[in-house]
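--- STAGE predict ---
source: upstream dedup step, 1 unique chain passed
mode: sequence only
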Amino acid sequence: MLGITDYGAFVIAIIVFLAIPGPGNLALITSTSKGGIRGGLAATCGVILGDQVLLWLAVAGVATLLTTSPSAFYAVQWLGATYLAWLGGKMLFAKAGAGPVLHIKAHHYLRQALLITLLNPKAIVFYMAFSPCLSIRPIIRG
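--- STAGE serialize ---
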């Protein structure tokens, strides 16, 4: 069966996940404050694109792979942590009075928000939890 099996739990999870600010929310706020409306819209498109990629990866069965292989999920978590640490270090070691640490061009905000979304463990866990019914699993006949 395709679709959401427990719609009430899905809606509650969406509300809770949106109420808890994560890296994606902070990327949107930062991009909007540094790049204005163009930066904010580009980052929004990056988050939406990242969510779509995660959704289609769940449909393709990657959620099942990450569930059965903790080391693969652990690697994705470390990739995300490393990327966020790199961004934070870039901001911490910026010289006072220098230009914005984050790039000014809109496509940079899109790319940054896309990477943050793709490596966000909260988003990955969400799609793993609520999309298992969408996963394409091989049928083993015995």
